[in-house]
Amino acid sequence: MKFEYLRQAVDKAKANAEKYTALYENAYTGYFTIGTNGKIFWLNQSGARMLGRERSKLVNKHFSSYITLDTLAVFKYFFLKVFRTRSKESCEARMIIAGNPAIYVLIEGILTEDEHKCLITLVDITKRKHAEEMVLLKANELKQINDLVEVSDLQMNELKKEINLLLHKLGEKEKFTVIN
Which residues, at least 6 apart from 36, have a Cβ–Cβ distance to it below 8 Å? Predict the structure, then answer.
C-alpha cells in the first residue's frame, strides 16, 4: 500500500515535470540563465530559435555578443542594474539573428537566489517597433501636410488681400473675406 502511494506520487511528479519542461521549452518567450561574467549558462529552445542558432552553440557564449552595437550600451547598463539593484529590470534592445535581420526584443531580468546568475526573458517586439515607426512616419507626414496647408492658407489670405486692394483701387466692392 505504501509503495503504491509512493509510485503514484513519483508518477505524478514525473508528469508534472514533463508538463512544465514542455511549457518552458516551447514558450513564446526565450528564457536564459546568464552568469555574472555575461555568459549564457542555460536557455530554452525558444531562446535558441529567437537567435536562429542551436542551443548547444549558444551555451557559454557571451549574451551581449548577440546584441547590436547601437543598443549594446543600453543592454550593458541593464545587466549591471540587475546585479546591483537585485530587483527586476527591463530594457529594449536589438539582437543579431543568424542569417536574418536583427529583431527588437524586450529583455527582463532578475537575479537568482544565489546571486551569481540572472534569469532573463526575451520577447520579440519587432512587429510592435515597426508599427511604432510607421506611426511616427505617418505623424511626420501629417505634420508636413498640415504645415503646407497653413502656408497655403496664409498665401491664400495674402492673395485675397491683394485682390481686395486692387478691387478697392478700381472702385469695386471687395469680394473676399480676409482673416487678420
Answer: 83, 116, 117
- Give the position of cell 536574418: 100
Distance CA(121)–CA(118), nearest Å, equals 10
Is residue 17 over pLDDT 70? no
Boundaries of every domain in the chain: 2-124, 127-180
Collapsing DSSP states into helix, strand and coil, what is residue 92?
A: strand
CB 57 within 8 A of CB 49: no
Of all residues in the chain, what percent carry a pLDDT higher than 70? 89
The per-residue pLDDT for 65 is 94
Do 74 and 95 touch, CB atoms closer than 8 A?
no
Topology of 2-124 in CATH? Beta-Lactamase (3.30.450)
What's CA 51's distance to the chain center, in Å?
A: 15
pLDDT band at 18 (very low <50, low <70, confident <90, very high): low
pLDDT in tens, 25-53: 677 799 999 999 999 999 999 999 999 89
Phi, psi (rounded to 5 degrees) for 63: -55, -40
C-beta separation of 81 from 71 below 8 A: no
